[in-house]
Amino acid sequence: FAVVNVALVCFVQERGALGFERHYHVTDPFIRRLGLEAELQGHSGCVNCLEWNEKGDLLASGSDDQHTIVWDPLHHKKLLSMHTGHTANIFSVKFLPHSGDRILITGAADSKVHVHDLTVKETIHMFGDHTNRVKRIATAPMWPNTFWSAAEDGLIRQYDLRENSKRSEVLIDLTEYCGQLVEAKCLTVNPQDNNYLAVGASGPFVRLYDIRMIHNHRKSMKQSPSAGVHTFCDRQKPLPDGAAQYYVAGHLPVKLPDYNNRLRVLVATYVTFSPDGTELLVNMGGEQVYLFDLTYKQRPYTFLLPKKCHTSGEVQNGKTSTNGVSNGIHLHSNGFRLSEGRAHVSPQVELPPYLERIKQQANEAFACQLWTQAIQLYSKAVQKAPNNAMLYGNRAAAYMKRKWDGDHYDALRDCLKAISLNPCHLKAHFRLARCLFELKYVAEALECLDDFKGKFPEQAHSSACDALDRDINAALFSKSDNAEDKKGGGPIRLRATGRKDSISEDEMVLRERSYDYKFRYCGHCNTTTDIKEANFFGSNAQYIVSGSDDGSFFIWEKETTNLVRVLQGDESIVNCLQPHPSYCFLATSGIDPVVRLWNPRPESETLNGRVVVDMEGASQANQRRMNADPLEVMLLNMGYRITGLTSGGAGGSDDEDSSEGQVQCRPS
């Protein structure tokens, strides 16, 4: 009995120690002390992929030199180097679960997937089923002999090493939905429920699939008496209803024509789940990093604008069930309308003194035109006081002034939140109309402005209202804003052009049912490479990390979205960032032929010169880079300064709203 008690105590202590380690292994002081520990040299080309084993005592890397190296990262030693048999750049490397770290899988630009036995340094399987570059491999602990690949032929393939056949099967064919030009770029399996597979591809939509449903559907099709009869309808419905769910940043589909005109490509370059499997992180090439909540889903606000009104019973606390939609405001079938009735003064909940000080600091930053600083301070206060309408309204004003990509949509979201908390928030009502206009929803903006005038008649003839009214009417009558763009055959925001990239009706339905993001992270640049990663950092996913085209990597607080650290990780571009599974330890790589290891440096050690002190300047430069034309980007990479772009952010000058008069001259 005593022996059992001792064993139990030891077990509890061990579990407690492990829990403590995993909970506190990444903390804010550690992040602020993060610095370069070592450089692992051994490759002769760009290092395009990194992978930790489950225990975190091995790190595998793959390179343009077609070699894979297995490292002992804790002692900075190269344990094994082997040529993989590939004839082109390696883009993905994965340890096969439950193989004792003996089996390693690689995917490369030669369209091949190779399986290697590290104990004998031999390639034991070679799969050549893809017809274009293989960009990512995914594995899952629940499927120990199975793995998946995503390639630029638009296919997701599944492999089972127990089968004698050297072939794979197509799990998902994106070309059946999106045409022949679609390319799959990345994929990942949910760590808590291995039945769910997320896929990133060409365009702004990220797809989540239920593998089990797909397999069950195909089994039932084979067992069906008509299994041998292939009809047109069968070909058009390769996946069962409910097996796919799409996610998209609500403003991106309508921005596609503008981006295409500027040769700016939107493509998901990396997807990953949070450790608990409830969130999906996406690095959107050509745009920002987005986090999607898989539990409390909400429809994109812009998708809801033309839809029928939802009853108040469908909205609860600004969120809905997984089958519902949440927009924080009533939308009528004939367009966009605010609540009926004349405004009355609504009491405001006072902020605690320390939050009031933060709000005042944010207001001061706003007055000094330090838009990002103001946004970060408002966000810090919002996290502590999520039901304060004034904070959302003020942050919306800062977003609208900064004008980075996606800022007007975040401002629209904040305005709707402010109005849901305080239906009489005058400035939020007006800013909402301005946001709709800036997002190209001109007819809805006019209707929203008309409702604002009815609700706040004393503001109906203000200079701000008159200015927005003129802008809206000019846009309505301009040829570039043809009303037919949003009629006939479905919303322009969801349709492709041309036959080769035409999308199916099933795809249209899935896109229309997409869910919106929860958080957005800004500052990095992702336009030059299509393998750039973003990852959760910390066992509780407290931080977000991403590589960047400027050679730095960026670290944000997850909940506030505030940028807290920028470090120079490469002489050109940082593509890969893989956090250690248990320690505050980060491996990065990019164009340089080295792997860099980062951890908190001792307080007695002077931090090296890789810290980017001017995070705001770096972020602004990256916004300009994303909005520059290809020639300007080339000149930037050559070290030339590009003139003619505003320092306040991409997409327009900062005096665009200067005529808004008393309605929107400053935060509350």
Could you please describe the fold and organization of this structure?
Residues 647-668 are annotated as: Disordered. Pfam families: WD40. This is WDTC1 protein. Keywords: Repeat, WD repeat. It comes from Himantopus himantopus. It is a single chain. The chain is α+β, with helices and mostly antiparallel strands. It has two domains: 30-217 and 236-302 and 518-615, YVTN repeat-like/Quinoprotein amine dehydrogenase (Methylamine Dehydrogenase, Chain H), CATH 2.130.10.10; 353-477, Tetratricopeptide repeat domain (Serine Threonine Protein Phosphatase 5, Tetratricopeptide repeat), CATH 1.25.40.10. It has 17 helices and 30 strands. The protein has a four-stranded antiparallel sheet. Strand 24 (534-537) and strand 25 (543-547) form a beta hairpin. Helix 10 packs antiparallel against helix 11 (407-421). The chain is globular. 46% of the residues are buried.
